Amino acid sequence: MKVRYGAQSDLGLKREVNQDCYGIAESLQPDRQEHLLVVCDGMGGHMAGEVASRLGVNAFLAYYYSADAADRHTLLQAALVTANRQIHEQGRGTMGTTSVVALLLGDQLHVANVGDSRAYLLRNRQIRQISQDHSFVAEQVAAGLLTPEQARVSAHRNMITRALGHQADVQVDLFPPIPLQPGDSVILSTDGMHGLIEDSEIAGIVSTLLPEAAVQHLVALANERGGTDNITVVIAQVVPPEEVLDAPAAGSLPITQPLPAPQPPLPPAAAATDAPPPPPAAAERPLTQRGALLALATLLLLLAVGALAFWFPPGGSTVNSPAAPAASVTTTPFPTTATAGPVPSPTSGGTTTTQPTQTPERALTPTVLPAATATPVPPPGETPGAGGTRRRV
User: Fold this and answer.
1) What does the alpha-carbon distance between residue 10 and residue 393 come to, in Å, rounded to a whole number?
2) Which of 227, 243, 259 is the last residue of a domain?
3) Residue at 369 is within a domain
């Protein structure tokens, strides 16, 4: 039988100390398919509850795996009794903890509990509570004095009638073994979770998500609904046969899930779209104005050169038709006036050609035309930010 786990313990939003504690262990004997889960919810002052829950988990696991009893079912009860004695001896009745344990042994489930921490079995999207709450409102519901809905909102719902460590002796509830089937999920939780989330909601979440994601979702949902207490959830799922080959070894998955990794940075090409586009128009207006002045100066110079050429042609010849040279002179600098940017001065010697003035126009045209016909750049998309609630794992 392959089992995969998910577990998380969270401070919640109202507490200063996390007094919950959990443990997951497996048998070191290869011939014994044994998976053991334990959850404790401490009480008794600012720090005493934290000490009681941690001592409860450690004492329970130490006794269970040090005993060489053949009956592992009744060993759950004996281990809880031993944990109760150690907590009582250390705290002298001033601290205590609830405790619920689940043993997946072979193809059977064994459950024992003290207090109001719960054990559920989920099968085919149907959930049922295996453990029994030892609380004032649970006794009122059993007596027919309260409905389950009234008990959920009762002002006395946090009153515990049984816990480890309050007295030298404790009564442990031990439930008959339950046959397990592939796909079954065992859920252990403190009242910080199941006190805020309905059983049907728990079933829907655990049925649709793997254990690692399900515990995170349940903790987040409890915090969304107020996070009034510490929140602890442990899930063990029996891997179906068709998934056994791909399933990781039991216990190899991380028990406490890390926060999601930050999103990787965008590649340079995509990241460039996030920056606002440079204002090309503002940078090119001075160039256009200066280019116009230079072009005007060039035009005047060309007109002057043209006039000199008209009145004093080379070789002493006269010009019979003054209109033709004038037309050729005025059409040459026209493209220069329309472009932006500096224009080279005429060559020395009193002569000029069209080639030096058109060469810089071709180089500046790719710069000027986009500025005049630029289309709006769409605003950058919003990148989702990481957020979360305050929590301690």
Assistant:
1) 5
2) 243
3) no
Count the domains in the chain.
2
Instruction: Report pLDDT for 118.
Output: 97
Q: What is the pLDDT of residue 240?
A: 84
Q: What is the pLDDT at residue 141?
A: 87
- The answer to whether residue 262 sits within a structural domain is no
* Token duo for residue 274: 């996030």
Q: Are residues 220 and 291 in the same domain?
A: no
Kindly list the distances between the CA atom of residue 384 and the CA atoms of 124, 262, 263, 381, in Å, as whole numbers in the listed order.
Answer: 36, 10, 9, 9
> What residue type is assigned to position 315 of the chain?
G
Q: Is residue 85 part of a domain?
A: yes
- Tell whether 224 and 301 lie within a shared domain: no
Which pair of structure tokens corresponds to residue 114?
């003290």
| Conformational region of residue 227, where left means phi above 0, alpha means psi within -120 to 50, and beta covers everything else | left
Angle of CA points 81, 87, 91, to nearest 5°:
145
Cα gap 294→1, rounded to integer Å: 88
Residues 76 and 192 in one domain: yes
Q: Which residues pair with 119 in a beta bridge?
A: 188
What does the alpha-carbon distance between residue 360 and residue 37 come to, in Å, rounded to a whole number?
81
Residues 222 and 343 in one domain: no
Phi first, then psi: give them for residue 106, nearest 5 degrees: 65, -120
Start-to-end Cα distance in the chain: 29
Spatial distance between the Cα atoms of 260 and 247, rounded to a whole number of angstroms: 22
Domain that holds residue 295: 286-316+325-362
Based on the domain organization, do 206 and 347 belong to the same domain?
no
73 with 187, same domain: the answer is yes
User: Residues of the chain with pLDDT > 90: what percent?
Assistant: 49
Mean pLDDT, to the nearest integer, of 334-346? 36
pLDDT of residue 109: 98
Task: Answer whether residue 280 shows pLDDT above 70.
Answer: no
Residue with tokens 């305050």: 390
Residue 381 falls inside a structural domain? no
More confident residue, 168 or 286: 168
Integer Cα distance of 47 and 177 in angstroms: 36
